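Lab notebook, design round three. We kept the backbone fixed and only want residue identities now. Task for the bench partner: fill in a sequence for the structure below.
Input structure tokens:
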């Protein structure tokens, strides 16, 4: 198997350990966004999709499909975001001289 071509300066490259942390947090945030979008869309569609106007029920003055898909789902997912940030996200310094990879004390 041929060796990959090396270029001048390649041996000087050292990956910043903050990159791995940022990449992991990116995937967590993307998964959260996909789950949130799917939950809001599915709730709205299941409760209100294809119904005639006289079949729609109301909760606190809102159509039921809107009430359950927007304010309630947003409140639930705000709690999920709080848990994700406090459990899986790491405070890392943005300066080059900081201790990368070690969380700041709270």
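Proposed sequence:
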């Amino acid at each position: 198997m041929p060796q990959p071509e090396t270029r001048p300066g390649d041996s000087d490259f050292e990956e910043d350990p903050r990159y791995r942390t940022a990449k992991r947090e990116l995937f967590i945030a993307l998964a959260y966004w996909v789950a949130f979008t799917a939950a809001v869309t599915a709730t709205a569609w299941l409760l209100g999709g294809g119904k005639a106007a006289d079949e729609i029920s109301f909760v606190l003055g809102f159509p039921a499909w809107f009430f359950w898909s927007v304010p309630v789902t947003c409140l639930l997912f705000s709690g999920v975001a709080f848990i994700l940030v406090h459990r899986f996200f790491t405070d890392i310094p943005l300066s080059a001289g900081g201790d990368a990879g070690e969380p700041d004390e709270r």
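Keep this in mind before ordering anything: The two ends are 50 Å apart (CA to CA).
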